[in-house]
Design a protein that fits this description.
The protein has 434 residues and is of the alpha/beta class. The chain has 16 helices and 14 strands. Helix 5 packs parallel to helix 6 and helix 12 packs parallel to helix 13.
Length: 434
C-alpha cells in the first residue's frame, strides 16, 4: 500500500519506518528541510533503539523515502497519517494548529479517495471538526480515522511491531477495511485490532495515559506515607502487584512521570473535563502529586545540607525522562537541576544519550557534563540518581566512594540495596523507605 506520514518526530518516524518494513511504500513528510536532509543521510533526529537500522534497510530497499513535498505525497498515496505535535496552550487546552495546517494541505492535494489517519493525540471531537474543514476545500471522497499511538519511548519500535492492541476509530467500513489490511502483519499472533467509533478512540488515548499516570502518582503518595509510618514501599509494591486485579506495571515509586505524553495528556483531560462540567478530581490530583514529587526530593537534599547549597557540587546520573531515549521533555532532572542551581549548587551531570539535549535546556555556567558516569563523581559532595539507565544498576560502589568527597547517594529510583550501601559506609536516601 502507498502511505504518507506527515511529521517525522518520535511517532511519525517510527510508524513510517515500521510500515515500510512490512512492504508498504512510505513517504515521510516534514516541513523541516534540514531534518529531511539529515534523515536522507541516515542522521537520526531522535535516539530510539533499533530505529536507525530499520531506516537504513528500508531506504536501501526503496520502500522508505523522506521529503518536504506534501502535495505530491498525498496525491500518490492511499492513506495519509498525521503525526505532528499537539502541545498544550497556557490555559491547558490542546493546540491543534499543526494538525489543522496539515489537514488543510492534505485537503488541497486530494485527487481521489483517501483515508486520513489521525495519529496525533487530539481532544474528543477533533475528527468531526477536521472533516468539516476538509469538506470546505474539496469535494473529493475521504474518511478520517482516529488511530491513537501507544508507543513507549525507548521501546517504540518493538511496541509498534508487536502491539498489545491497535485502536481504530471510524464509522466507515471502507476505511476500517483499509486499516485492518495495513495492520494485518502486526496482529498475526493474536493481538487484535479494536474497532470503535471515532470519539471513543480519541478518548481512549487520554484515558489510557491518564490511568497509567494515576498508578504512578498513587504509588508515590503511598511511598511518601511509608516514609512517615516506617513501612517499606518496595515490600508494599510486591504485596499489591501480586494481586491479579492490580498487576505489576507502573507501580514503582520515584520522581514521577515525564516525557511528551503523560504530563500533557493528563492536563488536557483535566481541561476537557472542565469544559464539559466534569471536575476530573482523580486526574487533577495525579498531576498535582507528580509535580510535588520532585519538590519532595529536593527537600531530602535541603534537609541534609540546608537551603543554601553554595559551595556544594552534586553529581547527577541521568538526564533523560526515562532510559533508552534522549528525550528530556518534562524530565524530573530539569526541575531538580534548576532548583539545585537556584539554591547555589554546582552540578556535574552525565547521561548516556541526553547530554546534547541537556545543553540546549540548561544555560547556566553552574552545570558541566562528563564523558562517563564516574567522571562526574570527582570532587562532588554527593551523587543523585535521576534516571535508571542499565549501566547505572550495578556500579562499582567502592570506586564511587573513592571519587566522592563524602559517600552520600540520593536515589530517585530506589535502585540500590540500602543495607549493602550502609555496610560500605554510605549515607543512602531513597523514596518510600526510612
Amino acid at each position: 500500500m502507498k502511505i504518507t506520514i506527515v511529521g517525522t518526530g518520535y511517532v511519525g518516524l517510527v510508524v513510517g519506518t515500521c510500515l515500510a518494513d512490512m512492504g508498504n511504500d512510505v513517504i515521510c513528510i516534514d516541513n523541516d528541510e534540514e531534518k529531511i536532509a539529515k534523515l536522507n543521510q541516515l542522521i537520526m533526529p531522535i535516539y530510539e533503539p533499533g530505529l536507525k537500522e530499520l531506516v537504513k534497510t528500508n531506504i536501501k530497499e526503496e520502500r522508505l523515502t523522506f521529503s518536504c513535498d506534501i502535495e505530491n505525497a498525498v496525491k500518490v498515496s492511499d492513506v495519509c497519517f498525521i503525526a505532528v505535535g499537539t502541545p498544550l496552550k497556557d490555559d491547558g487546552s490542546v493546540d491543534l494548529e499543526q494538525v489543522e495546517k496539515v489537514v488543510e494541505k492534505i485537503a488541497k492535494s486530494i485527487n481521489g479517495y483517501k483515508v486520513i489517519v489521525d495519529k496525533s493525540t487530539v481532544p474528543v471531537g477533533t475528527a468531526e471538526k477536521l472533516t468539516e474543514k476538509i469538506k470546505s476545500y474539496t469535494n473529493q471522497p475521504f474518511d478520517i480515522v482516529s488511530n491513537p499511538e501507544f508507543l513507549k519511548q525507548g521501546n517504540a519500535v518493538e511496541d509498534f511491531l508487536k502491539p498489545d492492541r491497535i485502536i481504530v476509530g471510524s464509522n466507515s467500513q471502507r476505511a476500517i477495511a483499509i486499516m485492518q489490511e495495513i495492520y494485518s502483519p502486526f496482529v498475526r499472533t493474536g493481538n487484535r485490532v479494536v474497532v470503535m467509533d471515532v470519539k471513543s478512540a480519541e478518548m481512549t488515548k487520554y484515558a489510557a495515559n491518564s490511568f497509567l499516570a494515576t498508578k504512578i502518582s498513587f504509588m508515590n503518595e503511598i511511598a511518601n506515607l511509608c516514609e512517615k509510618v516506617g513501612a517499606d514501599i518496595e515490600n508494599v509494591r510486591v504485596g499489591i502487584s501480586t494481586d491479579s486485579r492490580i498487576g505489576n506495571k507502573f507501580l514503582f515509586s520515584g520522581l514521577g512521570y515525564g516525557g511528551s505524553c503523560f504530563p500533557k495528556d493528563v492536563k488536557a483531560l483535566v481541561k476537557l473535563g472542565y469544559e464539559n462540567g466534569c471536575k476530573m478530581s482523580v486526574v487533577k490530583a495525579t498531576d498535582e502529586v507528580n509535580v510535588n514529587q520532585r519538590e519532595l526530593f529536593i527537600k531530602k537534599i535541603t534537609d541534609k545540607y540546608g537551603k543554601d547549597l553554595s559551595g556544594l557540587t552534586f553529581a547527577v546520573w541521568g538526564l533523560a525522562f526515562k532510559p533508552k531515549t534522549n528525550d528530556m521533555r518534562e524530565a524530573p532532572s530539569i526541575t531538580i537541576i534548576n532548583r539545585l542551581i537556584e539554591l547555589g549548587a554546582n552540578v556535574q551531570a552525565y547521561d548516556p544519550r541526553a547530554i546534547e539535549t541537556a545543553k540546549n535546556i540548561f544555560k547556566s555556567e553552574k552545570i558541566t557534563y562528563g564523558s562517563s558516569s564516574y567522571s562526574v563523581l570527582k570532587n562532588a559532595d554527593c551523587m543523585l540518581l535521576l534516571t535508571e539507565w542499565n549501566e547505572f544498576r550495578i556500579p562499582d560502589f567502592k570506586k564511587i566512594k573513592e571519587l566522592l568527597k563524602t559517600p552520600v547517594i540520593f536515589d530517585g529510583r530506589n535502585q540500590y540495596n540500602a543495607q549493602a550501601l550502609k555496610d560500605l559506609g554510605f549515607e543512602y536516601y531513597q523514596i518510600g523507605k526510612c
